[in-house]
Specification:
8 strands, alpha/beta, eight-stranded mixed beta sheet
Length: 290
Protein backbone atom coordinates (compact mmCIF):
# COMPACT_ATOMS: atom_id res chain seq x y z
CA UNK A 1 0.00 0.00 0.00
CA UNK A 2 1.30 3.48 -0.84
CA UNK A 3 2.34 5.57 2.12
CA UNK A 4 -0.50 7.86 3.10
CA UNK A 5 -0.38 11.51 3.96
CA UNK A 6 -2.60 13.97 5.74
CA UNK A 7 -2.23 17.41 7.26
CA UNK A 8 -0.92 15.93 10.52
CA UNK A 9 2.28 14.60 8.96
CA UNK A 10 5.56 15.67 10.57
CA UNK A 11 3.80 17.00 13.67
CA UNK A 12 7.05 17.02 15.59
CA UNK A 13 8.14 20.03 13.54
CA UNK A 14 6.89 23.59 14.13
CA UNK A 15 4.03 24.76 11.95
CA UNK A 16 5.30 26.48 8.80
CA UNK A 17 4.86 30.21 8.37
CA UNK A 18 6.17 30.63 4.81
CA UNK A 19 5.37 28.19 2.00
CA UNK A 20 6.49 27.96 -1.60
CA UNK A 21 3.77 26.47 -3.81
CA UNK A 22 5.07 25.29 -7.18
CA UNK A 23 2.49 24.48 -9.83
CA UNK A 24 2.60 22.22 -12.85
CA UNK A 25 3.25 23.28 -16.41
CA UNK A 26 5.64 21.10 -18.43
CA UNK A 27 8.36 23.05 -20.24
CA UNK A 28 6.91 26.29 -18.87
CA UNK A 29 8.16 25.20 -15.44
CA UNK A 30 11.41 26.99 -16.23
CA UNK A 31 9.62 30.16 -15.09
CA UNK A 32 9.65 28.81 -11.55
CA UNK A 33 13.44 28.69 -11.55
CA UNK A 34 13.64 32.44 -12.14
CA UNK A 35 11.08 33.01 -9.38
CA UNK A 36 13.06 30.84 -6.96
CA UNK A 37 16.24 32.74 -7.68
CA UNK A 38 14.51 36.08 -7.04
CA UNK A 39 12.96 34.85 -3.79
CA UNK A 40 16.19 33.41 -2.43
CA UNK A 41 18.23 36.47 -3.42
CA UNK A 42 15.69 38.57 -1.51
CA UNK A 43 16.34 36.45 1.57
CA UNK A 44 12.96 34.74 1.44
CA UNK A 45 13.26 31.06 2.35
CA UNK A 46 10.49 28.50 2.79
CA UNK A 47 9.43 26.62 5.89
CA UNK A 48 7.39 24.34 3.61
CA UNK A 49 7.52 23.40 -0.07
CA UNK A 50 4.61 21.81 -1.93
CA UNK A 51 4.71 20.95 -5.60
CA UNK A 52 2.82 19.47 -8.49
CA UNK A 53 4.27 17.78 -11.59
CA UNK A 54 7.21 19.86 -12.85
CA UNK A 55 6.79 21.94 -9.69
CA UNK A 56 7.52 18.77 -7.73
CA UNK A 57 10.92 18.60 -9.47
CA UNK A 58 11.80 22.24 -8.84
CA UNK A 59 10.41 22.01 -5.32
CA UNK A 60 12.44 18.94 -4.39
CA UNK A 61 15.67 20.64 -5.39
CA UNK A 62 14.95 23.79 -3.39
CA UNK A 63 13.72 21.78 -0.37
CA UNK A 64 17.04 19.91 -0.48
CA UNK A 65 19.03 23.16 -0.59
CA UNK A 66 17.11 26.46 -0.22
CA UNK A 67 19.93 28.65 -1.50
CA UNK A 68 20.68 30.81 -4.52
CA UNK A 69 23.24 28.20 -5.54
CA UNK A 70 20.45 25.60 -5.73
CA UNK A 71 18.46 27.90 -8.02
CA UNK A 72 21.50 28.20 -10.25
CA UNK A 73 21.81 24.41 -10.23
CA UNK A 74 18.18 24.19 -11.32
CA UNK A 75 18.91 26.55 -14.20
CA UNK A 76 21.59 24.09 -15.29
CA UNK A 77 19.13 21.21 -15.03
CA UNK A 78 16.68 23.06 -17.26
CA UNK A 79 19.40 23.94 -19.73
CA UNK A 80 20.10 20.22 -20.11
CA UNK A 81 16.53 18.95 -20.19
CA UNK A 82 16.33 19.05 -23.98
CA UNK A 83 19.46 16.89 -24.21
CA UNK A 84 18.64 14.54 -21.35
CA UNK A 85 16.38 12.21 -23.31
CA UNK A 86 13.38 12.86 -21.05
CA UNK A 87 11.17 13.95 -23.94
CA UNK A 88 13.50 13.48 -26.88
CA UNK A 89 14.25 10.80 -29.41
CA UNK A 90 13.01 9.91 -32.86
CA UNK A 91 9.42 9.39 -33.87
CA UNK A 92 10.32 5.74 -34.51
CA UNK A 93 11.61 5.40 -30.97
CA UNK A 94 8.44 6.89 -29.52
CA UNK A 95 6.32 4.57 -31.65
CA UNK A 96 8.34 1.60 -30.37
CA UNK A 97 7.68 2.59 -26.75
CA UNK A 98 4.01 3.14 -27.54
CA UNK A 99 3.75 -0.23 -29.27
CA UNK A 100 5.29 -2.04 -26.30
CA UNK A 101 3.42 -0.17 -23.58
CA UNK A 102 0.17 0.67 -25.39
CA UNK A 103 -0.21 3.55 -22.90
CA UNK A 104 2.69 6.01 -23.23
CA UNK A 105 5.38 7.42 -25.53
CA UNK A 106 8.43 7.79 -23.29
CA UNK A 107 10.38 5.84 -20.71
CA UNK A 108 10.65 7.44 -17.26
CA UNK A 109 14.26 6.17 -16.88
CA UNK A 110 15.93 9.38 -18.23
CA UNK A 111 13.90 11.53 -15.83
CA UNK A 112 14.81 9.25 -12.92
CA UNK A 113 18.51 9.55 -13.81
CA UNK A 114 18.21 13.34 -14.09
CA UNK A 115 16.57 13.62 -10.67
CA UNK A 116 19.13 11.36 -9.02
CA UNK A 117 21.95 13.42 -10.54
CA UNK A 118 20.61 16.75 -9.24
CA UNK A 119 19.59 15.78 -5.72
CA UNK A 120 22.22 15.85 -2.95
CA UNK A 121 23.97 12.54 -2.22
CA UNK A 122 22.37 10.69 0.64
CA UNK A 123 18.99 12.39 0.31
CA UNK A 124 16.89 9.42 -0.75
CA UNK A 125 13.74 9.96 1.28
CA UNK A 126 11.41 12.90 1.72
CA UNK A 127 12.00 12.86 5.49
CA UNK A 128 15.70 13.61 4.91
CA UNK A 129 15.04 16.95 3.20
CA UNK A 130 16.05 19.97 5.32
CA UNK A 131 12.79 21.76 4.42
CA UNK A 132 9.47 19.92 4.84
CA UNK A 133 8.28 18.93 1.38
CA UNK A 134 5.19 17.36 -0.12
CA UNK A 135 4.17 16.61 -3.68
CA UNK A 136 0.87 15.45 -5.10
CA UNK A 137 -0.07 12.73 -7.56
CA UNK A 138 -3.39 11.33 -8.75
CA UNK A 139 -4.15 7.81 -7.52
CA UNK A 140 -5.70 5.70 -10.26
CA UNK A 141 -7.24 3.12 -7.95
CA UNK A 142 -8.83 5.68 -5.63
CA UNK A 143 -9.47 8.39 -8.25
CA UNK A 144 -8.18 10.91 -5.70
CA UNK A 145 -5.25 13.18 -5.01
CA UNK A 146 -2.49 11.65 -2.89
CA UNK A 147 0.11 13.65 -1.01
CA UNK A 148 3.58 12.20 -0.53
CA UNK A 149 5.14 13.51 2.67
CA UNK A 150 7.48 10.59 3.44
CA UNK A 151 9.05 7.71 1.60
CA UNK A 152 11.35 7.48 -1.45
CA UNK A 153 11.80 10.97 -2.86
CA UNK A 154 12.46 10.17 -6.51
CA UNK A 155 9.51 7.77 -6.70
CA UNK A 156 7.21 10.46 -5.31
CA UNK A 157 8.43 13.07 -7.78
CA UNK A 158 8.14 10.66 -10.70
CA UNK A 159 4.57 9.88 -9.65
CA UNK A 160 3.74 13.57 -9.56
CA UNK A 161 5.23 14.00 -13.07
CA UNK A 162 3.62 11.00 -14.80
CA UNK A 163 1.86 12.91 -17.58
CA UNK A 164 -0.90 10.70 -19.02
CA UNK A 165 0.00 9.36 -22.43
CA UNK A 166 3.59 10.55 -22.23
CA UNK A 167 4.96 8.66 -19.22
CA UNK A 168 3.84 5.42 -17.62
CA UNK A 169 1.86 5.45 -14.37
CA UNK A 170 4.21 5.10 -11.42
CA UNK A 171 3.62 2.31 -8.92
CA UNK A 172 4.32 3.16 -5.28
CA UNK A 173 3.28 0.52 -2.81
CA UNK A 174 0.03 -1.04 -4.03
CA UNK A 175 -1.18 2.00 -5.98
CA UNK A 176 -0.51 3.50 -9.37
CA UNK A 177 -0.20 7.24 -9.86
CA UNK A 178 -0.51 9.79 -12.64
CA UNK A 179 0.45 13.45 -12.89
CA UNK A 180 -0.57 15.52 -9.89
CA UNK A 181 -1.92 18.25 -12.14
CA UNK A 182 -4.95 16.07 -12.78
CA UNK A 183 -5.99 16.55 -9.16
CA UNK A 184 -4.38 19.74 -7.86
CA UNK A 185 -2.31 21.82 -10.24
CA UNK A 186 -1.55 24.83 -8.00
CA UNK A 187 -1.96 23.49 -4.45
CA UNK A 188 -2.40 26.67 -2.44
CA UNK A 189 -5.04 24.99 -0.28
CA UNK A 190 -2.62 22.27 0.78
CA UNK A 191 -0.06 24.78 2.01
CA UNK A 192 -2.72 26.65 3.98
CA UNK A 193 -4.08 23.41 5.45
CA UNK A 194 -0.57 22.59 6.67
CA UNK A 195 -0.41 25.90 8.52
CA UNK A 196 1.30 28.35 6.17
CA UNK A 197 0.43 31.99 6.79
CA UNK A 198 2.46 33.48 3.94
CA UNK A 199 2.32 31.69 0.60
CA UNK A 200 4.37 32.40 -2.51
CA UNK A 201 2.75 30.91 -5.59
CA UNK A 202 5.22 29.97 -8.32
CA UNK A 203 3.19 29.40 -11.47
CA UNK A 204 4.07 29.11 -15.14
CA UNK A 205 2.04 31.97 -16.57
CA UNK A 206 -1.08 30.18 -17.74
CA UNK A 207 -3.40 31.74 -15.18
CA UNK A 208 -2.17 35.19 -16.21
CA UNK A 209 -3.70 34.72 -19.66
CA UNK A 210 -7.43 34.49 -20.46
CA UNK A 211 -8.71 31.37 -22.15
CA UNK A 212 -10.17 31.58 -25.64
CA UNK A 213 -12.84 29.47 -27.29
CA UNK A 214 -11.24 26.39 -28.91
CA UNK A 215 -11.17 26.50 -32.71
CA UNK A 216 -9.36 23.27 -33.49
CA UNK A 217 -10.21 19.71 -32.39
CA UNK A 218 -7.09 19.23 -30.28
CA UNK A 219 -7.72 22.50 -28.43
CA UNK A 220 -11.01 21.27 -26.95
CA UNK A 221 -9.45 18.92 -24.38
CA UNK A 222 -6.74 21.47 -23.59
CA UNK A 223 -9.28 24.19 -22.82
CA UNK A 224 -11.39 21.78 -20.76
CA UNK A 225 -8.35 20.82 -18.67
CA UNK A 226 -7.44 24.46 -18.16
CA UNK A 227 -10.93 25.24 -16.87
CA UNK A 228 -10.67 22.38 -14.36
CA UNK A 229 -7.21 23.35 -13.11
CA UNK A 230 -8.03 27.05 -12.83
CA UNK A 231 -11.32 26.37 -11.07
CA UNK A 232 -9.53 24.46 -8.28
CA UNK A 233 -7.04 27.28 -7.83
CA UNK A 234 -9.78 29.93 -7.82
CA UNK A 235 -11.70 27.97 -5.20
CA UNK A 236 -8.60 27.69 -3.00
CA UNK A 237 -8.07 31.44 -3.25
CA UNK A 238 -11.71 32.17 -2.44
CA UNK A 239 -11.54 29.91 0.62
CA UNK A 240 -8.45 31.50 2.18
CA UNK A 241 -8.88 31.96 5.93
CA UNK A 242 -8.30 35.37 7.55
CA UNK A 243 -4.67 36.25 8.13
CA UNK A 244 -3.24 34.27 5.21
CA UNK A 245 -1.21 36.31 2.73
CA UNK A 246 -0.75 34.94 -0.80
CA UNK A 247 1.71 36.32 -3.34
CA UNK A 248 1.08 35.27 -6.95
CA UNK A 249 4.49 35.70 -8.55
CA UNK A 250 4.61 37.01 -12.14
CA UNK A 251 6.07 34.95 -14.96
CA UNK A 252 7.18 37.94 -17.01
CA UNK A 253 4.83 37.16 -19.88
CA UNK A 254 4.68 34.43 -22.51
CA UNK A 255 7.77 33.24 -24.37
CA UNK A 256 7.30 31.38 -27.64
CA UNK A 257 3.94 30.38 -29.01
CA UNK A 258 0.93 31.91 -27.32
CA UNK A 259 -2.55 30.49 -26.96
CA UNK A 260 -3.70 27.28 -25.32
CA UNK A 261 -1.89 24.96 -27.72
CA UNK A 262 1.37 26.83 -27.24
CA UNK A 263 1.06 26.78 -23.46
CA UNK A 264 0.70 23.01 -23.41
CA UNK A 265 3.73 22.13 -25.53
CA UNK A 266 5.67 19.76 -23.33
CA UNK A 267 8.99 19.52 -25.24
CA UNK A 268 9.71 23.21 -25.80
CA UNK A 269 12.85 23.35 -23.64
CA UNK A 270 14.87 25.51 -26.02
CA UNK A 271 13.34 28.67 -24.54
CA UNK A 272 14.06 27.75 -20.92
CA UNK A 273 16.80 30.32 -20.48
CA UNK A 274 14.60 33.18 -21.65
CA UNK A 275 11.71 31.99 -19.48
CA UNK A 276 13.97 31.86 -16.43
CA UNK A 277 15.34 35.36 -17.07
CA UNK A 278 11.92 36.94 -17.66
CA UNK A 279 10.40 35.39 -14.55
CA UNK A 280 13.44 36.39 -12.49
CA UNK A 281 13.24 40.03 -13.56
CA UNK A 282 9.46 40.22 -13.10
CA UNK A 283 9.55 38.55 -9.68
CA UNK A 284 12.49 40.62 -8.45
CA UNK A 285 10.58 43.77 -9.38
CA UNK A 286 7.44 42.46 -7.68
CA UNK A 287 9.30 41.66 -4.45
CA UNK A 288 11.01 45.04 -4.45
CA UNK A 289 7.59 46.73 -4.52
CA UNK A 290 5.88 44.37 -2.08
Amino acid sequence: MAETSDCRDRTTEPAPTCAFVLGGGGALGACEVGMLRALLEAGIKPDLVVGTSVGAINGAVVAADPTVEAAEQLAGLWAGLGRSGVFSGSMFGRLQVAARSRTHLYSSAPLRRLLEAHLPPGVDRIEQLPVPYQCVAASIERAAEHWFSRGPLVDAVLASCAVPGLLAPVKVGDEHFLDGGLANSIPVGRAVALGARTVYVLQVGRIEQPLSVPRLPWEVAAVAFEIARRHRYARDMADLPPGVEVHLLPSGGPVGRCGTAGQLRYRDFGLSGERIDRAYRATAAYLADA
